[in-house]
């Protein structure tokens, strides 16, 4: 699977040096690389800090497409609404 297929990095940005990407693009690249490695678990602490509502949607979509167990610590109401239907283990 290519990084652009994850929806987190646009195809036109895949050839750019990382230093030329914005901080938001760098964070999305980090997440895309992580998800492309097909991890068993992903732990995220406030992953939506400094993301626009559109990017929160992209993040949710990308995470929803992974087979990994996803653990999220967040107070972001939009993110919590978006993942409401996901299987949950409340602690």
UniProtKB/TrEMBL annotation:
The keyword Isomerase does not apply. It holds the Pfam family AAA_21. Keywords: Repeat. InterPro entries: ABCF, ATPase_AAA_core, P-loop_NTPase. It comes from the Bacteria. Residues 12-80 form the ATPase AAA-type core domain. PANTHER family: ATP-BINDING CASSETTE SUB-FAMILY F MEMBER 1, ATP-BINDING TRANSPORT PROTEIN-RELATED. This is ATPase AAA-type core domain-containing protein.
């Amino acid at each position: 699977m290519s990084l652009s297929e994850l929806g987190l990095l646009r195809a036109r940005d895949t050839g750019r040096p990382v230093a030329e990407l914005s901080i938001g693009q760098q964070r999305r690249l980090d997440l895309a690389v992580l998800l492309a490695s097909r991890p068993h678990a992903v732990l995220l602490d406030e992953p939506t800090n400094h993301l626009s509502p559109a990017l929160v949607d992209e993040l949710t979509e990308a995470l929803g497409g992974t087979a990994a167990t996803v653990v999220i610590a967040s107070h972001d109401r939009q993110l919590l609404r978006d993942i409401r239907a996901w299987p949950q283990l409340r602690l």
